[in-house]
## 1
Amino acid sequence: MLTRQLTLSLKKINRIELKPYANLFASVKPFSSRSEGSMTSVEESDVGILCYISNLPGFRGVLKQRYSDFIVNEVDLDGNVVHLTSLEAPSEIAEEKKERLVDLLDKDYAPTIESFRALAGESDAEKLKDFINQIASGVNNRDEFILLSPCSDKSHRAAVHNFFKERLKLFVTDTIDGPDSSSKSVRVRLNSGSHNGSRRNSKKRKERGDKPYDSRGSESWPESTGKFLRFHLYKENKDTQEALGLLGKMLGIQPRSFGFAGTKDKRSVSTQRVTVFKLRAGRLAALNERLIGIKVGDFCHVNDGLVLGQLQGNRFTITLRSVSAETEDIIKASVTALGEKGFINYFGLQRFGSSSIPTHLIGAALLRGEWKAAVSLILDPREGDILFISKDVTRKIREYFKESGDVEGTLRQLPRHLVAERAILHCFRKCPGNYLQALLAIPRTLRMMFVHSYQSYLWNHAASMRVQKYGFHQVVLGDLVYCKEQEAEKEMTSSDLECKDGSSCDTDVDYHLDDISITDLSELRNTSVKVITEEDIVAGKYTIYDIVLPLPGSRIIYPLNDVGEVYHELAKKDDISLKDSLHNTKEFSLTNMTGAYRQVFQKPKDFHWELLNYTDVNKPLAETDWDIIAKSCAASFGRDSDEKEQIKLRSGCRLEANKFKNEVIQSPDTGETNSDREEDIQIEEPIGASKTPESQIALKLSFTLPTSSYATMAIRELLKTSTSVAFHKALN
């Protein structure tokens, strides 16, 4: 019955799609007429996701019932799929021999201290002198480091660091926060490499303060070893930035020290490459025993760190559960059509957030220069906050601020992951009522996400109109295509998206930024395109898979047919000009952005699928990288007859697997447990149900997409239903 209703609904949708494009977009409401209470979360039709390629009926299927139903493996620039295959750290290259501590202390440091006095002043010079004398005397003083005088001059702190590197290699330095927000202090401690294994001066972390030491530059680094450690990061149900933030905290280094090519969906199991400067693999590998939902491995040293955009795409393994259709042939035909024809390359719902205030509405306010309105959209209560308990708490905090205007009180209550909101309130604390300055206080990656979202909103509507007006069988006059004559290179650019201010971007921001791949925001820039002519159509050299549409900017052209007008018509409804800026803030102006192009139709590569029967709804149906490692270790037990090796394998792999998969243990660094991490939708048997579980069908898909494509849009083409999280939760 449900399948028949879906089929009837699909036929109705197809009839709607045959309307002239002018009618199709007449129902799109301008920004000013939309109210917060009109919806609890963004719907596909709100952001221009309207059409399908095939006319085949959809079928029922549940997306992401378990986060292990959505597996993502990065594909590097050479086309290799990134997997976690080993947790073992390689044998480190022997470090250069260091001078013994006693030999270092035999030197006369008086001239050096006098030079330091000229640089740092009398007080700090005396501190250093006493510290050296203390170490030389062998007294086990309670202080294992000294703090130099607070200083807000970054160049002076750099000079101090360089002084120790060049003239006092006996010590290493790092920087910690000073007594006030505008100053920092240089911390000086004995080089741990000079102890020759002795730990007589070591203290527990809790005894020396919360901030661990970052001493990666303190040791000489072998010239034959690359200065960057590259490793594979495996994570379950965690955002990339969240996982790297945890690793950084445990290692005592800043999260921005890690380099990566792109973020991955939070609600998934993913594996990707990460680099970090001058870190020994053994230190990182040792964390595996303490990590929950994260594993690191496949270590090697390389000369260069990763930057955003250095990937070819992602390999997806997606399992749709509770699949049902009138006939199995409908499923097979739909899957075959997806592999052969592909899907409309829409920006998915992740781009627009999950609350009642979609990110593109905030972007529209920014483009109009309505700073106060934009701040209100970010801070005010929204309907989506009442869907979950944690968000209900957030809603009450938002309501408190709206009613009281109490900045300090709100900051004390507001969760730290709400980075945009906290940045605005921190600015209000210093500059009350300065709305533009408050918006500019938001980390650049995040604040630009709002404007990129509005560009995506226009692109989606233009793509829908292109399909509605001209179909998907051939190119037409006025279409834009890649210029094959010049074989323009696809250049992935991510410069606009990096956290240049060094601020943390590991946020949900109530817009599910964690589900948005940062590289999704970078499209094909500096790519030569051309307008289709009669000669091109006769020659037949271009196909629908060459068609592109622009993301508005100053260096793009629009299609020379009706599709080009859609951009201007929709922007006009929101009182936005695509040609002129309404204010003087360049950052929030389309005329100051280069713009980009994006393929309209996308076909999945290396496409494979299979139908599976299952009875246990909570059992994983696809193997993750960790499953394969655990299985390999288990198989080793049976093959290896050596008792010592059996013990080694058991302690190093089986117990690790049990801890990772089954035990509810607490992380010493985060207090998080496996129970906290588990967000799968558990299906319970109704009272009085049959003891024998009913067999169900699952569809497992494997395919590769380029970085800017959304796998959820491929699934949408199959099911012909919404890809929203709320919709698929309701199916359960």
## 2
Amino acid sequence: MDFSSFLTSLATSFAIFVVLMFLFTWLSRIPANSVVYYPNRILKGLDPYENGSRTRNPFAWIREALSSTEEDVVAISGVDTAVYFVFLTTVMGILVLAGLVLLPVLLPVAATGKIAVDKNSTSKGAFTELDRLSMGHVKETSSRLWAFVIATYWVSFVAYFSLWKAYKHVSDLRAAALRSPEVRPEQFTILVRDIPPPRRGQTRKEQVDTYFKEIYPESFYRSMVVTENKKVNDIWVELEGYKKRLARVEAVYAESKNAGKPEGTRPTNKIGFLGLSGKQVDTIEYLNEKINELTPKLEAEQKVTLREKQQASALVFFSSRVTAASAAQSLHARMVETWTVMDAPEACQLIWTNLPKSFYERQIRQCIVYVIVFLTIFFYMIPIGFISAFTTLDNLKKLLPFLKPVINQNVIKTVLEAYLPQIALIVFLGMLPKFLLFLSKAEGIPSKNHAIRATSGKYFYFSVLNVFIGVTVGGTLFSTFKDIEKNPNSIVSLLASSLPANATFFLTYVALQFFVGYGLELSQIVPLIIYHLKRRYLCKTEAELKEAWAPGDLGYETRIPGDMLILTIVLCYSVIAPVIVPFGVIYFGLGWLVLRNQALKVYVPSYESYGRMWPHIHTRILAALILYQVTMFGYFGVKKFRFTPLLIPLPIVSFIFAFICRNRFYRFFQCTALEVACRELKEAPNMELVFRSFLPPCLSADKPNDDHFEDALPNVSQSGSFA
């Protein structure tokens, strides 16, 4: 890509963002669109147009985002969202502090360097303006390289300082949330797995109750044994489907009374294959019959499930959250594979089918999943490499010669050069997250938020190894294949010297991500179109309408790895080509603004883990930093700088820093500190409500009573704490 193509890419991306921002200002003012642009406020009972959100000023949302506080984010979107903004702020701080030295120091050093033949071009010879501002413009063995060595150390120590401050801050956020006087059911609950077989004549429920009453006689409340729910859940899902369908056809019938005859038109349907054949019946009567038929069947299956399908896992409830916190981090059995205890997640986050999986089954599943992930990463490098190599115009002309007349048009050529490789890569990566989430759940992980953290980690390493390293190495192999063929022994030096050649690709990739990506995020064009199509053609009831505009969450499993990829790219090229640093600052700064708006108005968190994502974020930032340090060590070697060994301590310091942070902070993110849990509550907890909040929907009776669960929930003293 030449300089004009890069400027075209940047200008076009910026123009798209401006258009989308004005579109957002116009569309968000229309009352019919408020459920798309302000669902978070609506669900919390707030005025969607509070604080002048209906203004014509296209920059009003920026003022609102900047004026919001961290307390506002915690109150509206939870601690996890606030922690995500700590991540964005930390990375932005690292890049700003790094740029304050890199830009004024390294750019003049590189620009005034004299080199006859540029062997280390950052743009494969086309983007010469960037070459003159990069490390590639500095002569081999030159004393000017000392400036780049100092800069490498500066970036590293800025990162250490920022990460340490951020870890302390997130720890304070977590502590403040956990010591809240509000009653949260999960704080009075522990999850028990790997329960050994009960003695003869003893039920699983009696076994669990006896075990924990003996250890915690004063604060043990009751237990809920996990059951095999597949059959009862199938019946419940079928019943709920009929109820939704009945509400829909009744709404259609009511509409027909207003539109036509006063008596209306009774809806009918055929009960054969796909409703295309069989007997014609009155739909309302048919659905009522089905509901009446399934209701007693569900109740009977609930009793059978609770009595006969108890498994080797349970939820145990305590009347004191200090006791629950203490139990969750205590060793209850001599053998690691029995009576495994941990904090209980929120009830809605439990993956019920994973809870009974045994200790050794989980270990085996984890090993198998890691092998599959490794193979996925390895084999994905092949298509990623081909995308890098073949989405250039020259290669497209060779592979698809009939496109030459179109590609040779100046306007089309410029646009394709600017966007084609980046768009191909973004689309290709969009197919992966669901597969990785499936693999994470297959490990036997007990909660959805834990599975999301695991997916985020897999996706990050995939992105770095395939996108960053894959594109770099893939482009290098194809561009230097003839040289390697002539001299196979030169492969190492050729690969090392060609690493900076993809700087402009990644520069454009970052620019495309922040302008177009965040423009679409702010404008919510796709969700708006989908909502209005559903509202116009599909929604007949209030429940269907609410489901059509129900907002999602921030999607940490893909959003954080995407941000991490950008951070990795910017860090690794920050010293080689410092002009990439401002683009990184813009990416994270614009992301902070746009997502602050979305967090306060649009997205509703699906879970709350009180910042448990942070240790994983911290580890991946350090992984990106170590990759940057290793990259710089290799590149200084290519430059034949004899003091290159001075960079060896950096990765060692990074590992030591990671070790210290883990030992100092990580334990608090695994479990709740007792000094935090001992804070007084606003009111005594209603333990019956705490208990029933964990009942799976398929086992919850419409009118819950203890008799319904008598086989699984024997009499336990319930005279404890009630609100």
